[in-house]
Amino acid sequence: VLCFNKIHWISLIFAILLLSSSGVVFAIMYYLLHGIVESLSRTDSDEVLRGVHLYAIIFIALSLSQLFLASTSITSLGACEEQICETVRLKSFKAILKQNMGWFDRPQNSVSILIHRLLVEASNIIQAFDVKFGQSFRSAVVV
After folding, report:
1. Is the Cβ–Cβ distance between 52 and 36 less than 8 Å?
2. What's the confidence (pLDDT) of residue 129?
3. Are 69 and 22 in contact (CB under 8 A)?
4. How far is the CA of 30 from the CAs of 9, 48, 84, 132, in angstroms?
């Protein structure tokens, strides 16, 4: 799949950087959650309130940045996915057009079957770059 993506490296690298940033934000949020639990274990109520308020503001800011990073990374990954799908379909169509006339007379090479192949097989190849790729990459960064 990556060999069809040589002309789309910039958008793929951009999506991977966004996914990495999203994973880093997740790790920071886990660390802050630990800080919130730790501040709740203190005995002074004023100190607990100040700590919780500070952590809540930071947590909200990180949540908003996580929302932006996640939506942008999914959008850019989807755009890259569509570019790759278009490239695969175009190369498949060019390969079909280079065939001899007798090749189209075979029942397994009828027009309807060839159109179905162009639509379905390119989409099946692209399944590697769906949201699961993004989620697994972001999880790898968090770990």
Report:
1. yes
2. 61
3. yes
4. 32, 19, 35, 22
Element containing residue 12 per DSSP (H, E): helix 9-40
In the chain, % of residues over pLDDT 70 = 86
pTM of the model: 0.66
CA distance 17 to 77: 11
Alpha-carbon gap, residue 80 to 60, rounded angstroms? 30
Q: Is 81 left (phi over 0), alpha (psi -120 to 50) or beta?
A: alpha
Per mean pLDDT, which range of 14-18, 39-43, 67-71 is the poorest?
39-43
Of 22, 39, 14, 2, the C-alpha closest to 129 is 2
What is the C-alpha separation between 94 and 70, in angstroms, rounded?
36
User: pLDDT averaged over the chain?
Assistant: 80
pLDDT value for 15: 79
DSSP, residue by residue, 98-135: TS-GGGGGSGGG-HHHHHHHHHHHHHHHHGGGSHHHHH
